[in-house]
Design a protein that fits this description.
Elements (H helix, E strand, L loop, with lengths): L5 H15 L5 H13 L1 H18 L1 H15 L4 H42 L3 E4 L13 E2 L12 E2 L1 E6 L14 E7 L14 E8 L3 H6 L3 E12 L9 E10 L19 E9 L8 E8 L6 E10 L9 E13 L7 E2 L2 E2 L1
Antiparallel strand pairs: 1-12, 2-4, 3-6, 4-5, 5-12, 6-11, 7-10, 7-12, 8-9, 8-11, 13-14
Length: 344
Amino acid sequence: MSSSDGVNGDQRLELASRIMDGRGSDADLQKLQVLLEDDAEFRREYLRYANLVSALGDGCESEIAEVAKVAVEVGGSRTVADRQVWLAYRRSLTLSGVLLGLLIGLLGTSLAWSMSERRLVVTVEAVRGLADGGFESLSGSLPSGFPQTVSAWSGDTAEVMKTVFAVETADGGFRGKSLRFVTPGSDATALQGPATSCDVFQIVDLRTPKLRGLRSGEASLELAAEFLDLRPARAEPPVSLYCQMFVFRGVPEEMYREWPRRNGEALASAAAWHRSSGSGARLPVHLNARCFLPHEADFVVVQLAARPDTPLADLGEVYVDEVSLRLRLQPTLPEREVLLGRSR
């Protein structure tokens, strides 16, 4: 067996040899098991060694036959010969049993590790229903009002503009378009109400067969966006930047009739926000919100907002870009009940 430490390698070889010869103690077996579990290189070397010894062990049968022959020829030594036959037979059984047990254990452990590795991996996948997260296919002002269809941006007065985030691309240009918040507006179902926030929305349908099939474990949604306040530093009034979502059950195309009155019926929701007073630097703020995704969820309302502390006719250079929605699947983990500090 190879080892970076020759002495340690010899000790491992001696340990394996003792067990295969039937001379190993319970402590030796436990030590070997720990080595096999903790050292992948040792597992490979041990399997090769075990295969070699197993092949050599086939000679035990001929050894038994030879000793039995001697027993017949030397009648006066029959007791001694019987003992030799028994010892040879016992050695064969011990070797075969130990090898079989350890090899089955190795295969079982490897299979368990492999299955656990697949089962315990968290998977993250983009929700394709979110359209134009980078606003690259849009231009000019967004449609006004709460969206009446899925996968389309609309809301208060906001416009798509070019080259706001100063991030150079591989071809020497800059990242393309961003959405500028322009004017706060009233809620769609309360047009006479106060205009306190510039909000844009998109409804994302979660009823696709692929998304339904992916919810085999514990699922959550992650909404992310990058905001940029290019107003001068310490600009007044401060503006609160929001990235939030609301998960619902029902028909997404009918949500515009009741927004925001149905917010209290949301199955789940999450929000992230940042209070900004301008910076003058082209350094975006990354916001991320995550919420649990119930199995019965049908759609999610994505909301991006810029909310000034005091009324403004124009928010100035406040932008959002790089909006993404991802589904995160956490595998179902085994549970262990703990009572009064003891596990069972």
